[in-house]
Amino acid sequence: MTKEELLQRKSEMEEEQFNLRLQKASKELDNPLRLRLLKRDIARINTILREDELKIRPLAPGEEKVNSSEEKPE
Fold it and tell me: What is the pTM of this model?
C-alpha cells in the first residue's frame, strides 16, 4: 500500500475504533474482540509508517504491506 492509502486506512480504522468504544460504553458492543484487533491493526500501520519515515523499510509504490485482520481467513 502507498503511504496515502495507509493513512486513509488508519483514519477509517480510528473512526471505527471510536464508534466501537462508544458502543462499549453504552453496553451495546456485540464483538469486543473487534476492538482489540482494530487497536493492533492501527499499531501495525503506525509501525509501517514510522519505518518508512526512518528509512528502515521504505514503502514502494503499490506495494502491499498491511495484512488487516479483516482480510485473514478464519
Answer: 0.76
pLDDT at position 40: 97
Domains of the chain: 3-56 (1.10.287)
Q: In this structure, what C-alpha cell is assigned to residue 33?
A: 474482540
Handedness of CA 13, 45, 1, 50 (dihedral sign): positive
Is residue 10 a contact partner of residue 45, using CB atoms and an 8 Å limit? yes
C-alpha cell at 65: 504491506
**Which sign does the torsion angle of CA 47, 53, 54, 59 carry?**
positive
How far is the C-alpha of 46 from the C-alpha of 44, rounded, in Å? 5
Find the Cα–Cα–Cα–Cα dihedral 11, 12, 14, 18, rounded to 10°: 140
